[in-house]
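Hi support team,

I submitted a single chain yesterday and got back a structure, but I'm not sure I'm reading the token output correctly. Could someone confirm the output below corresponds to the sequence I sent? I've pasted both exactly as they appear in my results page.

Thanks,
R.
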Amino acid sequence: MKKHDKTREEAWLLLNACTKNKNLVKHALAVEAAMRHYARHFEEDIELWGTVGLLHDFDYEKYPSLEDHPYKGQEILESEGYSEIIRRAIMAHAPHTKTSRDSLLEKIVADFESRELDLEKDLPQFERGLELASKLQKRLKEIENKVVAIDKKFSDDV
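Hi R., thanks for writing in. Yes, this is the structure output for that exact sequence:
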């Protein structure tokens, strides 16, 4: 991740501060997992793409109207110091903003909102995405706990 971007933990905290609906949080996690997969596949910045997936609808619960979403989110992201790349990709995911989809990141995140869903065909894939997102969240927590334990050990040794 580039220096000017926020960490996944910061993005997670922002998502949870703005989104209380568990289904919207699950959607964000599923899109994050998928975006990370695509980033790996295309050899792109996994953290950047994951952040876009995690935050693409973070303002939707609070500002669900076309007049507000994702515009209000943009104001929040800018005030929180999120990069233009992240903000632009999130704008591009919503067709009503008319933001051009120039980068691969913008095109792929937009695909999650523009596809017609065949529930019989796509629901099992979505459920698998939720399962993978849950596993990813658990694994990230395990890693976080290990880092805290290592940090504590080295702090105690000094």
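A quick pointer for reading it: The mean pLDDT is 86. Let us know if anything else looks off.

Best,
Support desk
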